[in-house]
Every structure is written in structure tokens, then in C-alpha cells.
Amino acid sequence: MMGMFSGFLKLMLLYGMFLGLAQGKVHYREFVLKEANFTRLCETKSMLVVNDSFPGPVIRVTKGDTVYVNVQNQGNYGLTIHWHGVHQPRNSWSDGPEYITQCPIEPKSNFTYEIIFSDEEGTLWWHAHSDWTRHSVHGAIVILPKEETGYPFLQPDGEEILVFGSWYKGDVNKEVNEDLETGNVTPQSNAYTINGQPGDLCPCSNESTYRWQVEHGKTYLLRLVSAVMNVEIYFAIAQHNLTVVGMSGSYVKPILTDVVMISPGQTMDVLVTANQPLGRYYMAARQYDSIRQGVKNYDKENVTAILEYKGNYTPSVSPSFPNNLPTYADFNPAIEFMKRIRSLANKDHPINVPQNITTRMYVTASENNVLVDLGGENVTALASSLNNISWVNPTTDVLLAYYRNISGIYTADFPDNPPSFFNFTEDDSPDDTTLSVQGTKVRMLNYNEEVEIVFQGTNLLDVSMDHPMHLHGYSFYVIGSGYGVFDIETDPKGYNFDDPPKLNTVTLPKNGWVAIRFKASNPGVWLWHCHYERHLSWGMSSVFIVKNGGTPETSIREPPPYLPPCKDSFTSRLLQYENSDGNRLNKID
Questions:
Q1: CB of 262 within 8 A of CB of 271?
Q2: Strands 66-73 and 81-84, how do they pair?
Q3: Is 93 exposed, middle or buried (0-12, 13-18, 19+ CB in 10 A)?
Q4: Measuring CA to CA, how many Å separate 254 from each of 32, 157, 247?
Q5: Alpha-carbon distances of 227 from 99, 125, 369, 412, 440, rounded to whole Å
Q6: Which family does this protein fall into (predicted)?
Q7: For position 290, what pLDDT does the model report?
Q8: Is the pTM of this model over 0.70?
């Protein structure tokens, strides 16, 4: 079997070289997916992981390299892998979202991804992009700068990776599928993890708490990855300052702070100087949830790891805890932190914000209700939407349908505006705005088109909250954000064109808006969605199809020699009805 895989990898390499895309070094990795037992919170469970590890293996490259990852699925169900934040120029075929750019890698089969790194630099990550499997299938990506350029800060003395995750005691995919079929709220995590461990403050966990040893006086590059499923988190290290120098595979102006807020899907590069008295210090995180005060059903656990100084000293009975770590409902630290994020915008790291906008979109992100058939009875269930459209996965992936001109898989009519305008952030929304429409609607973009999107948060069903919005295949400039309903006359006057951050995942604030710009210079099929997994399951996503340019170098690549075959997807529990009057409205309590 391994000989066959090796031969296929060589074929893929020759394919990439033929297309002239392998610019830096070429690496090969084997990802073996199978069930393994893990004990957390006093209970043992089996879950799908890569190479028997949770989190999974780190991919380490230099800017401009290419990696071939052969994924062998020895698990019990199909899945795909996404390389979050990697732009994959002209190569949607290896982007990974299920039923968007490929169909699942079925059990007892394999698929080789070609991961093409281009302008990314810093920390990114990879994760499963099927159902909720990413809760256990994920890992970090480290992209080093080229030797001739180096970091835009002093060379650190060392580095460390911290991956934040969500732990569920039960079979989360089974529970989620049941909840989707019945219209119930999807499960909450039982704890959070740092590098796979809940930490000292959780039951049966203090012996396995993750520890990071440092030497006094040295400065370290700490790479943070949030693989958390459905909430943002605050993170701090007791008595130590943090200097944020990168986000989403791009550098930012240094931000000196004692706490950061990180959303699902986001990555950060942080400098930490070990300048405190020898001892042990908690690195701690807790949930920040913007939904609304009074909500009691959330994961209240604090996750901890330990920063431990090397040397001769008598450690305290318990490490110091960061007393500056904000509480669950403390909004201000998150707001103030996000305001400070700016690109370097200098000679070595220039910016190029699109100015000739030809497509303007105003996209509302909402919680909704939909009609479902539950045992022959029509009831309402929870959903989410963009411009009142709840995405439904097709039975054949969108990319293949587009490339081969297969009709009936999607429609090219995703709207540039919501169906109606009202005070989106008011407490009492019109009743006729709460039901969404289900469909597989995409937005076509011309090659090199310059796009501005204003995402608008809403308070439908009284569940306004932050939404971490992620765009595949691109990084974008975040030119503005604010609270309330976006004012097209006054708010653009405050846009930042001097040093806006360049991100792949941005927080749409609770009852607010955020404006982004990008140039559609990467032809292909690219998903965009909220990175809360429950919102993705409920339909808060859509697809851009960026058309080819006029040359082979500006056109989508040909498909690889092999693609996983398509079977029927779990397309939807959703049914469409023209008349939705009189339906019961579910609310999240």
C-alpha cells in the first residue's frame, strides 16, 4: 500500500512541476486518520484523529514551499481536510471544504492534497471540513520567513505552539446529526483544551496539564491557534505581557497587551519575554461569549497550561493565575483589542487596498428559523443565514459542477443585499424576517474584480452575537467596523486605507458591522462562512466563483489525476415552503 501511495505522490509532484507551480522546497507528509482512545474529564472515549495525536501533527514549511499530504482514511466515515488561510493559487481542488471543492474521502480510501504556499508567513492551521469532525482533526501550520528576509522583529530565542480546542464527552457528530434532524440546539462543549489537555482546574486533569519550559531572560515566539468550535476566548499568561506581531499568516504592528481575544479559525503570533521571578505561571483561557447577558448554558470551565521556568527554585503549591483574564460577559477588552490590529504597511511588507470597487455587497448575518419535516409534521427549527439564504450542500461538489458545466447543482443568484431593510439591531424584529430561504446560491465574480463587502450583524430571534467570518482562497483588508446599522453616507468616511489589517478571518461584532475589501485575483471556487461550527451547520455560508482570466496563468488549474467520488450528501433537513405564516418560532435560551 505504501508503495502505491509513494507512486501516487510522485505522480502528483510531476503534475505540479508540469504546471510550473512548485517554487520553493517540496515536502511530503502522510496523514493516517483512524479512531483512537483518549481519556479526559475522568472518562475515556474513542475519536477520529490524525497519526494517533490530538491535536494533530504540525506542518512546518518556508514561505513559498509546496507540501503533498496523502490522507489515508482508516476511520468509519468520510471527511475532507482544509488548509485554513493557505491561498492555494488557482488550486481550489486542494482547498478541502466538503461538497464545495471536493466530495468526502470515504473510509478505506485516500486522497493527496497539494498545498501551495505563496505569500503567507507566520502561523496558520489545518482542520477537517466535514460535519463537526474538526473538533478532533486539526493541527498547526508554521510558515517560516525566507532566510534572506527574516522576521520583521528580533529573532526569537525559541518558539512554542498552543492549540486551543473544544472537548466533548459524547460522540459529537452523532449528537449534532440528531440535533439537526430535530431542529434542536447543537451541543455545548464540556471543556476547552490547550494542546489537547483541559488543565489543572478540570476533573482528573492535573497530572496531564500541558507544560512549557522557558529560560529566564529569553524571548519566545508563541504561536496561537484557535480550533475552538463555537465561541471566542480570552487568553492571558499570569504576570507576563504579550506582544502580538502577526495574525492570519500576516504581520501586524506590535500590540503590547496583557490579554488577547481570539476567535475560532484565527491564528496569532505573539512574543513573550520570560522576565518574571523563577516559578510557575498559568497560561489560561476562558470563554468570551457575546450573545447576551443572562444566558446560562455555556462552557464555564477555565482551561489552563503552565509556563514553567527552568532553574533551581522551590515551586509554589499552585501556579499564579492571570487575575486580568476577563469574565465571560466582559465585552470591552475584546472591543479594545480588535481596534488595535493594524498591518505593518511598510516598505518590506506593503499593502495594496483595492480602490476601484466594481462589486459592493451588503450581507446580513442572522439567526433564523426554517421549516422542517419531523415525522410528517411541519415544525420550525433553528437556522442561520447570509442575506436570508441558508446554504444547502449539493450532491456533487460545486467546483466539479462549475468546471464541467454540470447544471442543476447550484444557482448563480446569491443576492448583493438582504431582501428587506429595517433596523437590523433593534430588539423587536418584524416577524416576517425570521424565516430564511434554503438554497445553493453562489456569487460569480470576474477575474481581478475589486470587491467590498459590508457584513451586518442582526438581532433576529434576539440572539445577536459576534460572527468570525472566514473567506477561503484569499486574505482581505479590514477597512472599517462599528456598532449599530451601517450608515452608507457616514461610515465609509472613517475607513482605514493607511494600515488596515490583512486577515482571512475577521470578527463581525455583535449588533455591528465590518467592511472588507479584496481583489478577485485567484480564480476558482471559494467558500465563505461563519467559523462557528453550529452556524456553518445551520447554513451561514455561501460561495464565490471567481472566473478565469484571459491566460492559462490566470485560470483555474486542471483537476488532479484523482478526485474522491461523490455520493449523496446529507443535503438538508430543510424543506422550502412559500407560505410560512403561523409557524412557531424557536429561540435560543
A1: no
A2: unpaired
A3: buried
A4: 38, 18, 11
A5: 21, 9, 27, 32, 27
A6: Belongs to the multicopper oxidase family.
A7: 64
A8: yes
